[in-house]
Amino acid sequence: MTRMLLWYWGRRGGGAQFALNLARALAPGGLALSVSRQNELIGALRALPVPRQEVSTYNGVAGFVAGFARLPRLSARLVRFARDEQTPVVFSAMAHPWTPFVAPALARAGLAFVPAIHDAVPHPGDPAVLFDWRLRRELAPARAAVVFSDAVAEAVAARRPGLKLIRLALGAHLPFGTATAEKTTDFLFFGRFRRYKGLDLLRDAWPALRAAHPGATLRVVGEGDAEALAPGLASLPGVTLEQRWVPDAEMAALVAAARVLVLPYREASQSGVLPVALASGVPVVATEVGGLSEQLRGTGAGLLVPPEPAAIAAAMARLLDPAAFAPAVEAARKAGARLNDWDGMAAQLREGIARALRG
């Protein structure tokens, strides 16, 4: 079995959780880690019984800019660590702003660079400056790439024809275990606030839902300016808005406290929150766009609807009906159990990389 180096220099969020869960599953088969010393999960990463390289990255814009002077030395350190640990494969769990500067050095050193591509096109409303350049620099030296939806696979194939692609399901990022909690809200929107996530669609759907169900409640939690994206959302009856970063230790309990998760996106590669909801037995109302469709379709764990306020409101109302809610909860638990099989995902990753390198 080929030894692997898992490379993740990010600090927090879904990437850190993904890297930790996958590292735990990969460790028994031969693994080394290169991680940021500023990673919010560094304690858990240090507890893994594998060789580890810790790199000081940065905590703000000034540190990011100053760090460019260190990139040649950091690239050389990463290559040397991979060679010392006899890990001919370097798997990037998620792109870091420094990835496009470091990845070419891995290929020049003869290492097999395999990145996980979470997004292959910029999200509508997100900054697209340098996106194409960054992705080209990440894909050009790659021997294979990991994708989590057919939508992303198609976009990657268009950018780098012939590149071997390894398709994995995006697992439930629950490093602290699946939580159970008393239901304190009917509906939850959770995640960083971005224009493509359709908060304005949810705002426009809510009055219709409340007209049919006057006691319904909606909790909106995430980092960003929700009022700039959906003016008036916080003033709607039954809505609670919490503009804050959610620590990893709080995430599972936050999701489990909702009856239904709502993802009213206009576009999506895939959602990291959706697997967390399923693993917590929480059904999902999601719009039928991009990778969201692939994640939810066929599970019975919720409803897929067009990205329109009326359709979103109707689906939310349907899941308030106990006759529809109960079977959706059971289906969510079954789907979530599959998404918590990190050992299976680690085995698929190793097998996929082995096939790609043989080819």
Structure description:
- Helix content is 43%, strand content 17%.
- The protein has 359 residues and is of the alpha/beta class.
- It has 2 domains: 186 residues, Rossmann fold (3-Layer(aba) Sandwich); 155 residues, 3-Layer(aba) Sandwich (Rossmann fold).
- Strands 10-9-8-11-12-13 form a 6-stranded parallel sheet, with helices on both faces. The protein has a 5-stranded parallel sheet with strand order 3-2-1-4-5, sandwiched between helices.
- α5 packs parallel to α6.
- The mean pLDDT is 90.
User: What is the CATH first-level class name of the largest domain?
Assistant: Alpha Beta
Judging from the principal axes of the Cα atoms, what is the shape?
Answer: globular
User: How many separate helices?
Assistant: 15
Spatial strand order of the main sheet: 10-9-8-11-12-13
Overall pLDDT metric: 90
- The number of distinct β-strands equals 13
CATH-wise, what's the superfamily of the largest domain? Glycogen Phosphorylase B
The helix content is: 40-55%
Detail the poorly predicted runs.
none
- SSE series: EHEHEHHEHEHEHEEHEHEHEHEHEHHH
By CATH, the architecture of the largest domain is named 3-Layer(aba) Sandwich
